[in-house]
Amino acid sequence: MVATVVRLRARILRHTLARETWRLVVLIAGALWALSMLPSVAGGMVWLSGQPAEVAHDVLVVGGALLVVGWTVVPVLIPGLDDALDIDRFATFGVPVRRLVPGLLAASFLGVPTLFTTLVCFAPVLAWSGHAPAGALTAAVAAPLALAPCLLGARLSTGLMARLLGSRRSRELGAVGGLLVVGAVVPGVVAVGALGIEGALERVPAVATVLGWTPLGLAWAAPAAVVQGDVAGGVLRLVLAAGWAVVGVLAWMLLLRRALVSPPARGGEVRRRADSVLPARDLVGRPGLVAARAVSRRALRYWGSDPRYVNALLGAVVAPVAIVLLVATVVDAPAAVALSMGPLMAGSVGWGRHNDVAYDGSAFWMHVSARVPGWADRLGRAAATLTWGLPLTVVVSLAGAWVAGRPDLGAAAVGAALGVLGAGLGVSAVFSTVLPYPVAEAGASPFVTPSGSVGASMVAQVVTSAATAALSLPVLVAYGATLWWNPALAPVTLVLGVLGGAGVLLGGVRVGGRIFDGRAPRVLARLR
Amino acid sequence: MTSPDGPAEPARAPSPALSMRGLVKRYGRTVAVAGLDLDIPAGSFYGVVGPNGAGKTTTLSMATGLLVPDAGTVHVHGVDVWRHPTAAAPLLGVLPDGLRVFDRLTGPELISYAGLLRGMPRGVIEARRDDLLRALDLTPAGATLVADYSAGMTKKIALACALVHAPRVLVLDEPFEAVDPVSATAIRRILQGFVAAGGTVVLSSHVMALVERMCDHVAVVAGGRVLAAGTLDAVRAGQDLEQRFVGLIGGEQADPELTWLRPSSD
C-alpha cells in the first residue's frame, strides 16, 4: 500500500508538472532556494558547536519550535500550498485509513519543503558533535521525532480548519476566531509594548526552557540535556516526543476517518427565517445602486459563512501581525515596525481582493446574465470589504501608534493605512476582471489548489502588488516624512490618505467597471 | 429574415424571438459549434435535442450572452445580444446547465438577489418571489441554504431566478434534469402558461418523449450544426421523434457485449 500511494503521488506530480510549466518553475526555484539555504544552515550549526551548550539549546529549541509553528500555520494562512493527496479521493476504494496513513506520510517526502525540513532536522547532529559524541547520537535519533510534529502539524491544522470552516456554524466560529485573535494579539501587543521589544528578547532563555518540554521543542532539547549530563532527562524527552508523535498520528487518523465518511462540506443545516438580501427600503437613484447594494449584502454573507472567505479574512488579519512580529525580532527599530502594522494590514486586506470575482465561481453567470453595470458590481464588492476592513485598519493603526509610544502619530498612521486600503481595493476592482485565476470552488476545502492556476496566479499577484505599491507610494512617502522628519506633517498624511485612497478606489471602480462591461462573459468563461 | 439592428422594430410578420446566424465556437482544435443558423419563432415552445457533445449548451450560452461566440450574431426580438447587451438582458431569462448559483443564500434570498441585480423595486420582487416559491413548491424549504438543496430543488430555484424579471424569451438548458415527476409537471404548467401568454420558451433536452409531449417546434443538433428544424410534425415526418433522431444522427451502434458483467461470474 505504501508503494502504491507513493507511486500514485509521483505520477500525479509528473502529470501536473508536464501540464503546468509554471509549477515546474516554482518547484525548481524552491529546490534551488533550499539548496542555497543549506550552507547557511550548516554554517549556523558549526557556529553553534563552538558555543556553550545553553546557547545552542536556546537557539535550537526556539528555532525548532518556530519550524513546527511555521509548518502548522503557513498552510492555513496561504491556501493552496498543501499539495498532499486529498483523502476524499480514496473514499470510494474502501481502503482502511490505517493502511493509507504510512503511504500518505511517505508520499509527503516527494516535495521540496519536506526534504528540506528533513535535512534541517538532522542538522543539530553537526552542532552537537562539537560538544559530545553522545549529543550527536541523540540528535540523530531525535531528528525523525523533530520532523514528525512538522508534518503532522500541517496535516492536523489544515484538516481541522477545513472541518471547522466547512461546518455551517461559521458565524459562531467567526466570533470564536475573532475572540481568539483578540485574546492572543492584545495581550501580546500589550506585553511587548510594556517590556519594549528589547526587553522581550531578553526573555528568550526562559521561553526556550519551557518550549523544550512542549511537543514543539522536545526533540530539539533532548541532545542538550544529554550533553549537559542529564541522560535520563534526554531519554525522557525522546520518549515524550515519540509519544506525542503517536498521539499526532492517531489524531490525524481520526480526522481522516471523519473526512472519509462525512466530507466537511456537509455540515449542519443553517436555517434563516428572514430574507436578509431584500432591503427594507427602495433606493432612489440609478438602478445600478440597487444592484451594488445587493452585491455588497451578498458578499457580506459570504464573508461570514464561506470557508474560503473566512480563511482569507483570517489570513489578511493574521499574516501582517505575524510579519510584524517576525520583523520586530530582527530589525532594530521597534517603533517603526509597530507603526507599519496599520498600513500593512490595510494592504493585505485591500490587495487580498484582487481575485474577488473568482470566488464567485461559475455562479458569476447571474451577474453576467443580468448585465449588472460594471461599476455597480465593483462598488458592491468594495463596499462589503470596507464594511469590516475600514474599522479594522483604523483600530489597528491607532493600536500600532500606541504600542510604538507615539500616539501623536496616530492620525498619520490612520491616513497611511486608509490610503493603502483605497489603493489596494482600487487595484483589486480593476484586476479582478482583468486577471482572474482559478481558486478552490465554493463548498470545497479552501486548502485545495485548483490545477492550472500557478502561472496565472503568479502573474496576477505580481502585477497587483506592484500596482498597489505604486499607487500607495505618495501617502507612504508622506507617512515616512512624518515619521522621520517632521511630525507636524501628520494632518497632511491623514488628508492625503483619506482623499487619495477614496480617489484611487473610485477611479478603480470606474475603470474596472468599464472593463467589466466589456469583458464579463470572458471572465465567466475563465471561471467555469 | 435578418432584422436590422436597433430597438423595437415594428411587428411586421412574425419576427423571430431568437435568431442565430452563423454561430461558431472553437475550443482549441475542437469545433463545438460550426456555423449554426436557427430561428426561434415568437410564441413557440421550442425544443433543442441532440446527442451528448452536440454543442447544445455552447449554443444556448452564446444565444443568451454568457459565452462570446467566435463568429456569428444573435438577435433577441431584433436586439443584437452581443452589440447591445444591456438592451437584450431584460428580454432574456436564462437557466444554464452546470453552472453554480450563490448557494450560501437561502432560496428566497437567491430569487431576491436575481431581481435586485436587475434593479427591480423591492415590492415587486417580494410579491413575485412568494408567487414563484409557491408555484414551484419551494416554500417549505424557504429557510434552508441553497447549498443544502437537492439537485432538483436547485434546478427549480434557478428557474425561479430566470423568471423573476418576467422576460419575453426563456432559454432553459436541461430544465428537467434531476427534477422529480411532480415538480416536472409544475414546471411544465408554468412554461405552458408563459407560452400561452405570448412568451417564448427554448429548452434543450435529450429526453425525446418529453420534448415530443411539450414542444411545438424542435431542432435536432449534432456536431455543432442544425440537422433538422421546424414544427414538431415537420421534423418527425411521420415517424416518432426518437426514430427520426436516431436516423438523423446516424443509426444505432452495435453494442459490444460485456460478457463478464454478470453477478455470478468473478
Description:
- The complex is a heterodimer of chains A (528) and B (266).
- Chain A has 528 residues and is mainly α.
- Chain A is built from 21 helices and no strands.
- Chain A folds into two domains: 2-171 and 190-261, no CATH class; 287-527, no CATH class.
- The radius of gyration of chain A is 25 Å and the shape is globular.
- By secondary structure, chain B is an alpha/beta fold.
- Chain B has a domain at 16-26 and 34-99 and 168-249: P-loop containing nucleotide triphosphate hydrolases (Rossmann fold, 3-Layer(aba) Sandwich).
- In chain B, 33% of the residues lie in helices and 24% in strands.
- In chain B, the strands form two sheets. In chain B, strands 6-7-8-3-9-10 form a six-stranded mixed beta sheet, sandwiched between helices. In chain B, strands 2-1-4-5 form a four-stranded antiparallel beta sheet.
- In chain B, helix 3 packs across helix 4 and helix 3 runs parallel beside helix 5.
- The longest helix of chain B is centred in the C-terminal third of the chain and has 16 residues, at 181-196.
- At the A-B interface, helix 12, helix 17 and helix 21 of A face helix 3 and helix 4 of B.
Give a quick rundown of the structure.
The complex is a heterodimer of chains A (528) and B (266). Chain A is 78% helix and 0% strand.
